[in-house]
Each structure stands twice: as C-alpha cells, then as structure tokens.
Amino acid sequence: MLGQSIRVLSVIPPMTQLNTPYPSTAYLTGFLRSRGVDAVQEDLALALVLELFSPDGLSAIRERIEAMPARKRSHRVSAFLDQFDRYRMTIAPTVAFLQGRDSTVGHRICGRNFLPEGQRFESLDVYIDEDGGDPLAWAFGALGMQDRARHLATLYLNDIADVLRDAVDPRFEFVRYAESLAQSQPTFDPLASALAAPLNLVDSTLRELTLQAVARHSPDLVLVSVPFPGAVYAAFRIAQTIKAHNPSIKIALGGGFVNTELRELAEPRVFDHFDYVMLDAGERPLLALLEHLQGKRSQQRLVRTFVRSAETSEVRYINFAELDVPFGEVGTPTWDGLPLDRYLSLLDMLNPMHRLWSDGRWNKLTVAHGCYWKKCSFCDISLDYISRYEAASAATLVDRIEAIVAETGQTGFHFVDEAAPPKVLKALAEELLRRKVSISWWGNIRFEKSFTPDLCQLLADSGCIAISGGLEVASDRLLKLMKKGVSVEQVARVTSGFTEAGILVHAYLMYGFPTQTVQDTVDALEYVRQLFDTGCIQSGFFHRFACTVHSPVGKNPEEYGVSLEPLPPVTFAKNDVGFIDPTGVDHDALGDALNKALYNYMHGIGLEEDVRSWFYGRAPRTKVPRDFIARALSARPGVDAPHR
C-alpha cells in the first residue's frame, strides 16, 4: 500500500434510518473525493432490511420458526406462520409501494383485505368513532389514500419486525438494534460475548452483505461510522466479517457514539476488529491516517486516534496537534453510490410534523459546525461537536444545496445542526430567494427572540416547512437553572410566529431534570397543553433527562443540587452517570403520564381536560393560569407579560 492510492469504503451500519441515508458517509465521501481520494460508500443498514423483508427473507424467517419447538412460539409467531403465504405474497409489492415505485398498490392496502394484520393494527382501535366509522378518516379524510396506505404498510412491517424479534433475534429493532450491548457499558464483555455467539439469521445476512460490498469495491480502508449505540453491535459484526475474510484491509471506527462514549477507551479487544478508532470531526484524522498508510507519516503523527500497541497490546491515544479542516472547506456531501430509490418512506406517526423524521427522502445538510449557544447544562458542551462553532457563508451553503439537488434530483433538505443560528438562517434564506432556488427545508433551532415574525415569514418564503427546538422542562425556574436562555413566554411568542408563517413546530421536552418536583412536572404539562391548544406547537416528544459525564451537570453536580453515583472502572463506553436527587420523585411513573398526554395532544385529543387526569394516583393542581399562554401571546412588545 505504500506510495499507492488508497480506495476508501465508508459504511453505514445497521440500524439508522430507513427513509433516507444517514449523512456521515455522504460527508466523508464528498470530502475525500474533494481531496482526490478514491472513495465509495454503502448503506448496509438499508441493505439488511431489504434482504430480510423480502420473499426469500420471510422464507428464511419461517425456516427458523419451524425449527423452534411449538411451545416456544409466541402468539405473534404462530399467527405469522398461519398467514405466511399472504405475508410472502404481499411483502414485495408493499416494499415497492413504500419506496414510491408502485403507488397503485395503495388502493389494495387501503381496502384492508390485502395485507395480513397482526397485533400492531390493534392501535387503530384508538381512533374508532362512536358510530363505528372509518378509524383513520379523521387523519386522512376521503382523499388521503397514499398516506393512509403508508400508515397501514408501516404497521405491517412492524408486525413482521415483532416476529423477527420473537423468533430470530430478541435484540432486533429498526433503529435501536442491540443498543443495550453498547450504551454506557463500562466493559466490553457483553459485546464480546454477543460477537462470540453463533450467527443468527440477522448476523449471517449482514455477513453476506458485507462480503458482497467488499467484493464490489476491493477497499484498502473501510470506515465504519457509528452514530448511535443501536448501530454498534452491527458495526463490530461488519468489522469481524472483514477481518476474517481479509485481515490486510484496514478498518477505522468513528461517529457520534465514539465521540461521546469511547473517549477513555482502554479495551484492547476492540482492536481485534478495528485497527483505528477516531474521535470528533473526521476530516483531519482521516487525512493523517491516509498519509500514514501511504508511508508519508509516522504513527506518532496520527490525529485524535486510538491504536493498539504491537509491543505491549495496550491502547494508546495519539493526537498530533494540527488544525481541523475549516467547515467552509469540508466540501459538499455526495450520495453517489447509495440507492436513493430504494429507501422506505414510513408513516408510523399520524401527526404531520412528527412524521417528517421517517417520511420522505431528505438531503441532510449541516448549516454550521457546533452550537453557537453552547451553554445548556444538560448538553455535552465540552465536546467538539458542540464546542467548536464554525459557520459557512450563505453563498457556500447554497452552492452545496444546488450541487446536491443536481446530483439527487431531490429538493427536500433536513438541516441537522444542533441549533441553526438565526443570522445564518436569515442569510441563507435571502441567498436562496436571490438565486431563485426552490427547496423545502426543516431543521433544529433555539426558540430565541431573534426569530421575529418577520424572520419567520422570510424563512417560510425560502422554503422552511417545519422547525424543532428545545422547550425542555417548560418551567422558568428550571430553564434558568439549565441555562437555556429562554422563558416559557418567549417560547410561546416565537413558536406562534412560526405557526402564523405556516411553519410546523416540534418541541423537544424533558422530564426528570435535577430538583424537578411533581409540581414542576404538572405545571410543565399544563404549559405544553396550552401551547398545543393555542396552536403554537403541533408536535413534541418527552425525553427522560440523562446526566452525562461531559455535561455541566455531570462535571459540577453540586451546582444543580445533586450528587453523582460512583462509576465502576471503565475500559469501554462511558457517558451516562447516575445521580441522587434529594427530591426523590418517581420520574418513571410521571414519564408514562407525560407521554400518554403528549400522544393525545398531538392528535388533538384531551386538550380541554385537567392535566391531572393523565397522572396515576393523586397529582397536585397546576399553579399555571389556564390562559397563561393566551395572555403571553396578546401582550404587546414593551408591555409587561402576564404574571402567574
């Protein structure tokens, strides 16, 4: 390999998304090609699903089921066997429909006599009206046949996934596949045991797909990007397969999971599978690695890279000091080589804003690197992906947008920033309008006062269809404690401005923050109810607060009224850390109530009910006036906002 060009294969491991490629390989491939590197990419997550959810894949599942003792088959598995011929007959046309390649199948799916219906279809009972009418008419009306069919087809795929989980691999998920093996695991032992186990159907299918990709591309270096804990197990299976097939192929591991959880990696067994483990933005470490593999740079001059010592077998971290590649020079991501016509547009949530994450083929693009605010106490603000803020010019961003549209033929964009800066979005909108570039876009922001009604309208005119942002705890006391830099009143006004401009709004919500009481939680839900009732937000999601070692809470717990539980010795993953909150609140029980309420609010149900009705047992009366948000919206600039 010395002195020769190196072919680089970037791989998306299972599981990430089914409707659109995870963007890491597109960024790396685009960057490497801009530097003259022979770079290609593969999405093995999509390939695995398409192989399993095919006529032959279902037949292979049936073979595994028939080898099981009948007494070990779940009700779902038995029902699948009973209706197997229908499943096998319908899987290919249903997948083609979800890929947008055969829309006519939607008519048969909507007839409710085409697809076999398992337990997932029981969720439709929630929508049946008192007269026994169409349970989905409220959501899709008389003309929404394609959307209705996509929702039913999604339930059908989820039914099959349940069977796969019961009969083949209990860890299988469309997104969070085997994530418990990796998330905050202090030792490598659980993952090592799983990797040493005999291959099941999912493993063997992934093995064959990996070998096919290697045969197609003959890479010298394979990059495996792992964004989430739910992609770690499959990433190691891919590396294990490649090493067994051809040990001379070098393999590097990186991505969001590595950047957050493997910063103190000391486990030598990781390097039985990977030759290099890289931290943070990958451009500079990759350039250094390529020079090293070509004999132009010693190992001691690698950048942000873990290796295993050949002499001692100990893990070493090497970080030769070099500047990162500026964000404006990372190049344009490319989706060349990814099968854009084979992604599945799913519709598991009927809410029009919530569905954007799984419905549609979005070009994912970053407006700026890092976060311009970087103060939130629950966030990993000490890490590079947050702390190093860099923006590109509006002209550069629109150049990238035009190049991506020309390549993909798709004009939908999801800006995947931590929080897109208002000034950059304003400049971007003006540049899009100046060049008469027509796209549809959505992304994540902070609900700050810079988003005036005029700016919201400008963003809408440029193609913005939806935004998401963190309301978090919907409590001014806790928002101040977490240094969010917003208030509930401000969020109401900002979100109302977006809604008035025709832009859908999703709120990220949080519960279980340090010192959050039951009263805080009830009051937060009342704020959320009012935000839905006044049309300020259309969608939301409650996350349970998790304390991480890289966040201000994890670094200075005493400032937040909590103490940390001691961590065991760590040689592998380190991120979440337990804490002792003196309030002693059972946040798990409260979380069930919050999520139930929010699910109903997103479907327009229960907005007139007292929020206490969602909680189990006794709950305190909210201290928030029922017209608080309405009064906040009616307050003119310069006039005191209403008091609680």
TrEMBL record:
<dbReference type="InterPro" id="IPR058240">
    <property type="entry name" value="rSAM_sf"/>
</dbReference>
<dbReference type="InterPro" id="IPR036724">
    <property type="entry name" value="Cobalamin-bd_sf"/>
</dbReference>
<feature type="domain" description="B12-binding">
    <location>
        <begin position="136"/>
        <end position="300"/>
    </location>
</feature>
<dbReference type="GO" id="GO:0046872">
    <property type="term" value="F:metal ion binding"/>
</dbReference>
<dbReference type="GO" id="GO:0005829">
    <property type="term" value="C:cytosol"/>
</dbReference>
<dbReference type="InterPro" id="IPR007197">
    <property type="entry name" value="rSAM"/>
</dbReference>
<keyword id="KW-0408">Iron</keyword>
<protein>
    <submittedName>
        <fullName>Radical SAM protein</fullName>
    </submittedName>
</protein>
<keyword id="KW-0479">Metal-binding</keyword>
<dbReference type="InterPro" id="IPR006638">
    <property type="entry name" value="Elp3/MiaA/NifB-like_rSAM"/>
</dbReference>
<feature type="domain" description="Radical SAM core">
    <location>
        <begin position="357"/>
        <end position="590"/>
    </location>
</feature>
<dbReference type="Pfam" id="PF04055">
    <property type="entry name" value="Radical_SAM"/>
</dbReference>
<dbReference type="GO" id="GO:0003824">
    <property type="term" value="F:catalytic activity"/>
</dbReference>
<keyword id="KW-0411">Iron-sulfur</keyword>
<dbReference type="InterPro" id="IPR006158">
    <property type="entry name" value="Cobalamin-bd"/>
</dbReference>
<dbReference type="GO" id="GO:0031419">
    <property type="term" value="F:cobalamin binding"/>
</dbReference>
<dbReference type="GO" id="GO:0051536">
    <property type="term" value="F:iron-sulfur cluster binding"/>
</dbReference>
<dbReference type="InterPro" id="IPR023404">
    <property type="entry name" value="rSAM_horseshoe"/>
</dbReference>
<dbReference type="InterPro" id="IPR051198">
    <property type="entry name" value="BchE-like"/>
</dbReference>
<keyword id="KW-0949">S-adenosyl-L-methionine</keyword>
